[in-house]
Amino acid sequence: MKKIFSIAFILLMSSGINAQIDRSQQPKSGDAPEIKLPEAKIWETKNGLTVIVVENHKLPTVNFSMKFDYDPILEGKKTGETSVFGAMMGAGTTTRNKEDLNESIEILGARLNTSASSVGVSTLKKNYKEAFEIFADVILNPSFPQEEFDKEIKQTLTGLEANEKDNKAVSKRVQDAILYGSNHPYGEVTTPETVKNIKLEDTKNIYATYFKPNIAYLVVNGDISKKEVKKLVKTYFKKWESGEVPTHKYNEPKNPTKTEINFVNMDAATQSIISIVNLENLESSSPDYFAARAGNTILGGSATARLFMNLREDKAYTYGAYSSLGSGKLTSKFYAGASVRNEVTDSAVVQFIYEINKIRNEEVTVEELNKQKNSLFGSFAMSLESPSTIARFYLNEQILGLPEGYYANYLKEVNKVQPSDVNKALNKYVLPENSRIIIVGKAVDVIPGLKKLGYKINYFDVYGRPTVAPSMAKPIPVGVTVATIIDDYADAIGGTKSLNKIKTLDQDFSMQMGPYAIDGNIKKMAPHSQKMEMKMQGQVIMKNVFDGKKGYIMAQGQRMPFDDKQTKSALGSNTIMPWLYFGDKKYNATLESIIPVEDSEAYKMKVTIGDEVSFFYFDVNSKLLIQQENVKEVNGQKMSEITNLKNYKEHEGVKFPMTLQVKAGPQVMEMNVKTVIINKGVKASDFK
Length: 688
What we know:
Elements: H1 2-19, E1 40-44, E2 50-55, E3 61-68, H2 81-88, H3 98-108, E4 111-114, E5 118-124, H4 128-140, H5 146-163, H6 167-180, H7 192-196, H8 200-210, E6 216-222, H9 226-237, E7 260-265, E8 271-280, H10 289-300, H11 306-314, E9 318-325, E10 332-341, H12 345-361, H13 366-383, H14 387-399, H15 410-416, H16 419-429, E11 436-441, H17 443-451, E12 456-460, H18 482-493, H19 496-500, E13 504-513, E14 516-525, E15 529-536, E16 539-546, E17 551-555, E18 558-561, H20 564-573, E19 589-597, E20 600-609, E21 612-619, E22 625-634, E23 637-651, E24 654-664, E25 667-678
Parallel strand pairs: 2-6, 7-11, 7-12
Antiparallel strand pairs: 1-2, 3-5, 3-6, 4-5, 8-10, 8-11, 9-10, 13-14, 13-25, 14-15, 15-16, 16-17, 17-18, 19-20, 20-21, 21-22, 22-23, 23-24, 24-25
């Protein structure tokens, strides 16, 4: 009875307290936490090297970083040379070849990283002297060996080739190319042609020109004292000579006078990557910097921001939608974007513009702003636990010319921001009427919808160069039907008579999933039995079996029987040559159009079985099936799985595709068929 009374008393007290709250008053954010940054020891040596030391003796580790603050280089016909140079800085010294350098670092349990503008080493306290000696050796004595240069050029070219058909890589590349232009260092694009123009001497020239102590910052943090650092600097960098470093001026890029769509066609794209961008000149020292940052966080800075809640949670267009607002010495950009399904590309653009206009035209609520402030208070306080972060703060104050104590007062400045400040700042830096809506996607699927939005559409290639509009869908010629296409395909791979003789099929294949090699086998028996087994290092990791009546999937040691939907799908499509039967009513096959597929034109055939939809693409000239697209629903969202069929080879009078490239979302896998055995060795017992 006493416990019941206590609970009732608490409830009564709670209701009394709630009754006294004035709901007309907006809640306030808490006071900004007091920030006390560890003191940094900063000094400049006689040769102009600036040294920043932030001591932290909680862990026995030390980090050394040398940052070179030079203007970006306009590389022109040798775009990519600074990236190659950054890699070459870790390719060996005059006292250690690359193998010796890597071994020396490994023995110490240290880590070395190099880039075009920095060299860094992380090590244990007990090894800091040896690690610093290697650190200084890399900075002062790089050897630039020809052999390593040739390897780096080859790797760069291989990477470019691999990324040509990667939507995300293409989107990242063309975004800055279109926004800044080729006459600005931020807009230059590395291509195979520019990489082939780079010579070893170019990397040596970059080092000789820009790696000077008078534009360098040595940043040290961790379990080390100023006295210890001074001794190291005097030992290794005393004789390092300063020198004049060139500065650069660039053409100033401009926003368009009116918002436009810039489109890059990717015929195999299953999703469109949308980037809405505009140039802006936000600086960290600007009075409206904190208001602009707060506004961007509310718009698209997290998984609870407006863009995410609209495009993912409400509309289910994407797995995530975000925005960012850059700042720095040179022109920067506002960005908002997401990867969305092809069929909702135009609708997603509309929602992006809607949210951007809304946050500019209507004040954010006090609740939203306070939530953002409190979140920032917590994340900023947590970031201070990292000595590297604190050291970076002091470096930023030096390089960006920020006032002393800028980061110590950071949260106080954030706390001053009011809703009206956010509105004013975003109207200055976020420009939906002067933006570029850059879309990388499948033209035949998305251009018709985009044209209805009323924006001018410009077309670019995968390197951000202007090009003509891509070839779009063409009507099916008179006399071409599902039946004629199937007949032509059958003739192209061996003829209907030979195909109908195939009663069993046994195929071995191999594939690579990241670092893992997988071996597999597929067995089929007419009319519907099928088994696929995949192994890794001799162990079965997945098995999919259907005996013509029932089936199961085995993965991670668990056996899961087919449900009704899976059984229906297996009965509908698991024949040896399913496309031979597309003329049957149950397949509901229809022709849609002729569309470009990679470098060919193909008939697009839609096949519907129940609520499952697939598309088959038959090359107009070769008559071969070159692509298959299955539309699936994953976690409530539709996703396309595309399979490219290549490298047809004849086996016992019938041609089979020996290479199958499968793309599902961001994952790309290539299956290589090693053997094809027809009408031998497959038994009914294989499907149990």
